[in-house]
C-alpha cells in the first residue's frame, strides 16, 4: 500500500530539481504513518539520494515504504548534530548500504550526552563510530561539497545559546562540558542556476537560523528560495525549553531577512510554531512526516 502525500511545488513549469520528503517527525500527515521525536528528510538532488538525519530510530524506513520512497537506496547521510533525534537510524542506514557516505563536522564527531533529571545519558553516536574504518565517514571542518551544488556549512557567527539548552553536553579533552552546538552544520542546495537562489536546510538551528542565513548569503550572494528544518524549541517530552521571547526574537529576525517560504518541523513544536506564525504569517508553514516539497 502506498500513501499519496501532500505535495508543495515551488518549481516553475512543473520542473523538479530538488525533492524533499519528511520521513520522520513529531507529527504525520496521514494516520497510517508513524511519528517520533526526530527528523529525517529524504532529499533527491540530481542523481544523489540524501538523508538529512535519520530520526530517532529505523522508523523512517517504515514510513518510506508506506510512501513508496526509496530511502534504502540513499548514497549519502548527513548528521547536522550528534543527537538521538538525528542519529537513531544511522546504523540501519549503514546496514542497507555499507558504502553510504556519512558527513559530520569534526567538532561534532564526539561523545555527546543529555542530562535527564539527575543522570547524564549518552546522546547520538559515540565518537568511536565516526572514527571507525568500518564506515565511510567524512569528517570536515567548516565547509564541504557533498555533491554538485549541495554544500554543508558551519555558521560564521553563532547566536548565544539559549539558557534552557544547558542540559546538553559534549566531551572535550576527556571531560564533559556544556554543549554550545558550535559543531552544528547546515546544508545549502541550489536546485538550478546559482543566480536563481538556494534552499537552506537545518536540523535544529541551535546556532541561530538568522546566522545561518546570513552566512550562506555572504558565501554565495544569492536569493534564499526557502528555509526547511527545525529550530530546537522543545525537548523529547514536548516541553518548550526556551522562552517565548527567544522564539519571537528569532521570528522577528527571520521577518527582516529576505527569504522565500519557511517550512519548519520537529522540535520547533506547535507552540513555537504558532508564536512564529503570528509574526511571519503565510511565509511559515509546518512540514509533517509524509509531506513533500519540490523546487
Q: Structural class, please?
A: alpha/beta
Number of helices: 7
Helical residue percent band: 10-25%
Our Rg estimate from Cα atoms comes to 18 Å
Main β-sheet: number of strands, strand sense, barrel status? 8 strands, mixed
Order of helices and strands: EEEEHEHHEEEHEEEEEEEHEHEHEE
Q: What's the mean pLDDT score?
A: 92
What is the CA-CA span between the terminal residues? 27 Å
* Poorly predicted ranges: none
**Which word captures the global form?**
globular
Beta-strand content bin: 25-35%
Q: Count the strands?
A: 19
* Strand neighbour order, sheet with most strands: 1-19-2-3-4-5-6-9
Q: How does this structure look, described?
A:
This protein is α/β, with parallel strands linked by helices. It contains seven helices and 19 strands. The chain has helices at residues 59-67, 84-87, 90-96, 127-131, 209-220, 244-256, 270-280; strands spanning 7-9, 18-24, 40-45, 48-52, 76-78, 101-105, 112-116, 119-123, 136-140, 143-147, 150-153, 168-172, 175-178, 186-189, 198-203, 224-230, 259-264, 284-286, 292-294. The strands form three sheets. The chain has an eight-stranded mixed beta sheet. A seven-stranded mixed beta sheet has the order 10-11-14-15-16-17-18. The protein has a four-stranded antiparallel beta sheet with strand order 8-7-12-13, with no helix packed on it. A hairpin with a 2-residue loop joins strand 7 and strand 8. The longest helix has 13 residues, at 244-256. The relative contact order is 0.18.
Amino acid at each position: 500500500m502506498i500513501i499519496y502525500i501532500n505535495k508543495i511545488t515551488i518549481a516553475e513549469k512543473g520542473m523538479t530539481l530538488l525533492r524533499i520528503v519528511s520521513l520522520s517527525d513529531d507529527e504525520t500527515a496521514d494516520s497510517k504513518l508513524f511519528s517520533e521525536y526526530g527528523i529525517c528528510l529524504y532529499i533527491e538532488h540530481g542523481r544523489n539520494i540524501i538523508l538529512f538525519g535519520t530520526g530517532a530510530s529505523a522508523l523512517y524506513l517504515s514510513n518510506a515504504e508506506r510512501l513508496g520512497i526509496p530511502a534504502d537506496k540513499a548514497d549519502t547521510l548527513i548528521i547536522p548534530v550528534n543527537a538521538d533525534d538525528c542519529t537513531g537510524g544511522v546504523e540501519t542506514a549503514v546496514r542497507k548500504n555499507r558504502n553510504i557516505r556519512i558527513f559530520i563536522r569534526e567538532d561534532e564527531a564526539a561523545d555527546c550526552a543529555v542530562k535527564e533529571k539527575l543522570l547524564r545519558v549518552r546522546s547520538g553516536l559515540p565518537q568511536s563510530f565516526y572514527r571507525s574504518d568500518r564506515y565511510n565517514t567524512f569528517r570536515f571542518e567548516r565547509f564541504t561539497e557533498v555533491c554538485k551544488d549541495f554544500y554543508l556549512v558551519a555558521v560564521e557567527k553563532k547566536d548565544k545559546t539559549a539558557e534552557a539548552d544547558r542540559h546538553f553536553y559534549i566531551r572535550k579533552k576527556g571531560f564533559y562540558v556544556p554543549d554550545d552546538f558550535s559543531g552544528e552544520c547546515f546544508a545549502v542546495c541550489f536546485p538550478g542556476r546559482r543566480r536563481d537562489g538556494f534552499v537552506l536546510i537545518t536540523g535544529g538551528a541551535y546556532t541561530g537560523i538568522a546566522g545561518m542565513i546570513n552566512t550562506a548569503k555572504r558565501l554565495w550572494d544569492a536569493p534564499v528560495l526557502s528555509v526547511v528544518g527545525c529550530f530546537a524549541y522543545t525537548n523529547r517530552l514536548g516541553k518548550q525549553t526556551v522562552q517565548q521571547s527567544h522564539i519571537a526574537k528569532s521570528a522577528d529576525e527571520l521577518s527582516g531577512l529576505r527569504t522565500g517560504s519557511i517550512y519548519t518541523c520537529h522540535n520547533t513544536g506547535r507552540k513555537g510554531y504558532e508564536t512564529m506564525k503570528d509574526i511571519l504569517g503565510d511565509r511559515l508553514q509546518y512540514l509533517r512526516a509524509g509531506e513533500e516539497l519540490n523546487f
